[in-house]
Amino acid sequence: MLAAPADHEAGEATRPRKIIHVDMDAFFASVEQRDNPDLRGKPVAVGGSRERGVVAAASYEARKFGIRSAMASVTARRKCSELIFVKPRFDVYKEVSRQIRAIFAEYTPIIEPLSLDEAYLDLSENLKGIISATIIAEEIRARIRTETSLTASAGVSYNKFLAKLASDYRKPDGLYVITPNMGAAFVEDLPVSKFHGVGPATTAKMNGLRIYTGRDLRAQTLPYLQKYFGKSGPYYYSIARGIDDRPVRANRVRKSVGAENTFAQDLVALDAMRDALQPIIDKVWRYCEGSGIRGRTLTLKVKYADFELITRSRSTPKPIDSRLDVEQISIDLLTRLFPIPKGVRLLGVSLSALGTEQPEDNSQMHLAL
Known about the structure:
The protein has about 375 residues and is an alpha+beta fold. It is built from 13 helices and 13 strands. The longest helix is centred in the last third of the chain and has 22 residues, at about 270-290.
């Protein structure tokens, strides 16, 4: 059971929150291996095997070859010639996700879904009156295994940031607890690249400032972090100390869903940018298909080599209902920018003005590549 940390405002003891982060292990690929015994123990990639296909999920056997989600299918094939591609079945994944969500709901109504395969649960007060959040996490994992024949990893802590780190710590099929007494020390030795919310571009920027670990991040002042990271500075300042006051938000309204990619080399040619948009569009549309989300406004994000950022948007009378439409609008918005004045280091696509067929899948979502 989590112990109470000291209150940093009034000096009084406060009751700690009990947060669990549950993350299904290689969810899409595991469902395919469950339903097709011939795939078990073999490297499996869920996604398209075509030239511009993208890996949506990889089994742990495939991950041993360095295959990861959002990787181009041709790259994945080069890494593992025996890789088996399986077409995604989002209707099945959604149904399994509903089963898992029903298990969560027996313990707490405060559930914040992040996607079909992961969620935060606030168990500070729970429906079964179980004192220990660790015991609840063990029960949930056992029930998921029994009822779906799948495995889940779980992290237990006193805030969302640490619960997420904890669920990653013992993957796959693991459980880890970070108590208030462990929080700050646990963060110190982790590379900043392991921090949820710190993507590749931010990691590179931090490394350029000689910030490599949580200890390095904690050594920076708040004004310094605000200077270099703007409105994200206070968040980085807090998590380096194991502090995260964000609540678990049940049924919050998603405003947009999007993906972006920062390129190793700046792009200047239209054809190269059109190719670079394909995996970004695949990522966005894959999520739309899996969640039932549709949007009426598409926004193209372009960051130039000198970090100048521009966006171009187009709204449609009806929700955008096919990947082809997403691609055509994105390419048209991009083409209208040419000739471009300088190289492009980042492209992104997002959908907003959202509607959904699945109101329970309504967490905010950004899909980083």
